[in-house]
Amino acid sequence: MYRTNWGIGHGLKDILEAHKGPFTGQGHKGLYEILTTSRHAQLSLNLAMLGSTTIVVAHHMYSMPPYPYLATDYGTQLSLFTHHMWIGGFLIVGAAAHAAIFMVRDYDPTTRYNDLLDRVLRHRDAIISHLNWVCIFLGFHSFGLYIHNDTMSALGRPQDMFSDTAIQLQPIFAQWVQN
Question: Would residue 157 count as lying in a domain?
Fold first, then answer.
């Protein structure tokens, strides 16, 4: 994504405009102009990336402590995790706010017809309803685990509960990555 003064490499505009898929219409055409002319779009994108990175840092500092003595002090470790999660959350809220400001002040749907952002906006109802179904699915299934454990506890069958000593829910993909 870097082009030297002698024309070696790739420019970001060329990469974005060359990316066209079967379902994306004109693809990312015009996205470079949006990012170079709208400060709110730039700020929104950068805040979202920094917020996501901060949340990943919080998780990694909690699950794989970078300093050997950090793992022995649980209060400090939990405080660092909470601190970075709050910072990441505030950065992502700021990204959403600046994306909304961009959509109200800087986005012109008449000049951006059939590009990727226009197609996402035209399909926003379907996208939101699918995200709603995903949230409902996850909520019911995690609530189902609580109901299952309460029922097994009430019936006096602790060996059938989801726990570390009975039926274990192992993070198999995380273990695969770490080993």
Answer: yes
